[in-house]
């Protein structure tokens, strides 16, 4: 298992995340500003530790048929550099559902991919970075994360959380621990979100994901 420093594209990807959380406005929110700082600090610790790149078995899900289109759209957006790095690494991604029971319809329209965290490929204990891919017209049911604070950064597609607003590529949405949220996606394009989780190592290793009622 080669270390991070010997895998340039994985190292570039962490730097892309760091830049994404280091630039742009926090919208005047102290909570978001603090979250962004903690994500950057956790990323710095990962890079300094130079962890091994774990050899996870690549795996697709039905929704990954939309990944090429999502990356095409992201290439014209504000996170184009990250999109290009992701495209070079797609053959190494392990796409999952993460729930013990996934509704049949959602199983065709959703998957996530952990990029850094307790389950790798980049090993980290105090942060999880990953991607969520949603097909056009998808509703991702209400859910929450115990002890985990979460942010989504949009790479491609138009989407809404809790029917509050429409978010475009480049937007960052922050969810506090236990905050219930529901995502809907526009009808014309897939949605690709980069996410960051911060929380206790034991919880990040086994988040116990469940849907709300």
TrEMBL record:
Keyword Signal attributed: no
Keywords, in A-Z order: Lyase
GO MF, any single term: lyase activity
InterPro entries listed in its UniProt record: DMSP_lyase (IPR031723), RmlC-like_jellyroll (IPR014710), RmlC_Cupin_sf (IPR011051)
Protein name per the record: Dimethlysulfonioproprionate lyase DddL
């Amino acid at each position: 298992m080669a270390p991070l420093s010997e895998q340039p594209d994985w190292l570039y990807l962490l730097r892309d995340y760091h830049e994404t959380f280091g630039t742009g406005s926090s919208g005047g929110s102290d909570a978001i500003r603090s979250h962004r700082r903690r994500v950057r600090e956790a990323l710095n610790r990962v890079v300094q530790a130079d962890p091994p790149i774990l050899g996870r078995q690549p795996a697709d899900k039905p929704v990954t048929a939309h990944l090429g289109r999502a990356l095409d759209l992201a290439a014209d957006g504000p996170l184009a550099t990250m999109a290009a790095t992701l495209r070079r690494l797609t053959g190494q991604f392990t796409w999952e559902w993460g729930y013990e029971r996934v509704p049949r319809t959602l199983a065709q329209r959703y998957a996530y991919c952990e990029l850094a965290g307790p389950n790798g490929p980049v090993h980290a204990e105090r942060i999880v970075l990953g991607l969520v891919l949603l097909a056009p017209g998808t509703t991702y049911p209400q859910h929450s994360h115990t002890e985990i604070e979460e942010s989504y950064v949009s790479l491609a597609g138009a989407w809404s959380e809790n029917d509050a607003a429409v978010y475009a590529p480049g937007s960052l949405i922050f969810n506090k621990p236990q905050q219930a949220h529901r995502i809907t996606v526009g009808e014309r394009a897939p949605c690709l979100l980069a996410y960051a989780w911060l929380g206790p190592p034991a919880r990040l290793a086994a988040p116990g994901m469940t849907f709300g009622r």
